[in-house]
Amino acid sequence: MDGFEVKTVDQAAPWGELFITATGNVNVFRREHFVAMPDGAIMANSGHFDAELDLKALRALAEGHVREVRENVQEFDLGPKKVHSSPRAGSSTSVRPRATGRGHGHELREPGAVRRVRGPHHAELEAIVYNVPEAIDQEVARLKLEALGHHIDGMTAEQEAYSNSWTSGT
Model confidence over 80-118: pLDDT tens digits? Predict the structure, then answer.
């Protein structure tokens, strides 16, 4: 609806130049996709694990012709073309950096952990997934930013009303 073409992985592989996976699933991009990708294609995974790219198949296609072109970016020479992977390709069971190629440190994981233990009556809760009240989520984010020495603007009353309305701006 925004003018973007929606394609299957099979359709996108020969057409795209940059592929970023964010499915949380396994082997989203496989051998047949690597073979179809254009020369210079770049793949990145936005998850904690590199399981979305079938790296075993990619390494086999490259027949050992793999080099690190910069930190956390590997080039796989597939003969007539080269494809790149960021984060660095490795074991599908090991934790890998995010798509930025620089990783995500405890600074990004910490707020999520704090939200888990700061909820009201946490000791009495069943071990299932709960939605964290927005007020707690915002307080944790504010405290984290403050601890890092950052400050952000709050919304004006007009901005809050707009944000909470489904009729404004339509």
Answer: 999 999 854 443 333 343 444 444 455 555 666 555 555
Ordered strands of the 18-21 beta sheet = 18-21, 42-45, 82-86, 73-77, 66-70
- pTM equals 0.55
Q: pLDDT by residue (tens digit) across 20-70?
A: 888 777 888 999 999 999 999 999 887 666 678 888 999 999 999 999 998
Contact 74, 88 (CB under 8 A): yes
Closest by alpha carbon to 16, among 32, 45, 39, 49?
A: 39
Q: What's the CA gap between 14 and 37, in Å, rounded? A: 5
CB environment 60-74: b (16+ within 10 A), e (fewer): ebbeeeeeeeeebbb
- Beta carbons within 8 Å of 161's beta carbon, 6+ residues apart: 168
Tokens read off for 128: 């299932």
CA distance 93 to 116: 25
Angle at 14 between CA 13 and CA 16, to 5 degrees: 65
Cα–Cα dist 104/87, whole Å: 11
